[in-house]
Amino acid sequence: MKFISPTIHGIIDYFVVIFLLASPTIFGFTGLLAIFTYALAGIHLLMTILTDYNVGLIKIIPFHTHGFIESVVGVVLIALGYTLFNDNAAGKLFYIIFGTIILYTWLVTDYRGILANLSNITMPVQQKDPKTGF
Questions:
Q1: Total domain count for the chain?
Q2: Rg of the Cα trace of the chain?
Q3: pTM score of the predicted model
């Protein structure tokens, strides 16, 4: 079920950037793990700013392309948890969980904007039959 609208997804994206920027401090990441996390925050901010949705500032990337990129990134982050960050327990756990959350968000986001379009639809009001009252 797709219950996250493009606007809500965009707001989540900005919070994700803040979370990624704070994560090295919160979780004690150093070295490559910290650099990678900061870089991911910068890339995610750039993609968020460039996406064509209500909260995007420069609307270049179609929202469905944004979704495709996020689905690939989610899988890659999980793989990195088991490879590049496998020797760091905190990094491994962080990227496996974070990648899974990215995939879950991808799964429940309405990338076609159907939810937004539904809110613009008005249903006709049925008139009562003057003879029967129904």
A1: 1
A2: 20
A3: 0.82
